[in-house]
Amino acid sequence: MASEKQEPTILQMHDLRPAPGAKRDRIRVGRGEGSKGKTSGRGMKGTKARYQVRPGFEGGQLPLYMRLPKLRGFRSPFKKQYQVVNLNALSELFPKGGEITVDDLVKGGAVRKGCPVKVLGEGEVKSAFTLKGMKASATAKSKIEAAGGSISED
């Protein structure tokens, strides 16, 4: 007998079977006392034997969602949040005065890019500032104009 070559068997869809013990019948609980009937795996008495406990129920203890403080008030999503710069910071960054824009303040590190700027009146003004593209408080405006400067909110 010469070595006969056997054809390799190709696995086909109709040959597939689940592994032994992989498929078991489901247990039908609550269908008579002969087959998991009476308590149906819920044990004896108690809340969990009688009905489904709602989510968040802590056995009568004051639940977490009631212990935490409520969020009060309202926060408008359209509110403009200004970055503030005081006059003393302007005097330090630009001691000679001149025209100052928001980009100049960003380069100087006084404010971040992308937010509107408001100048407040804390500090003294020694030179004339010409502020462009920012707001100013009434005290800052009076001090800048007294020193010979101006403000435009374009």
UniProtKB/TrEMBL annotation:
GO biological process, one term: translation
Biased composition (Basic and acidic residues): 14-36
Molecular function as annotated in GO: rRNA binding; structural constituent of ribosome
GO CC terms, sorted: cytosolic large ribosomal subunit
UniProt-listed Pfam families: Ribosomal_L27A (PF00828)
Domain of life of the organism encoding this protein: Bacteria
Residues annotated as domain Large ribosomal subunit protein uL15/eL18: 84-151
Keywords, in A-Z order: Ribonucleoprotein, Ribosomal protein, RNA-binding, rRNA-binding
Similarity field: Belongs to the universal ribosomal protein uL15 family.
Matching NCBIfam families: rplO_bact
Quaternary structure (record): Part of the 50S ribosomal subunit.
Free-text function comment from the UniProt entry: Binds to the 23S rRNA.
Protein name: Large ribosomal subunit protein uL15
Protein's gene: rplO
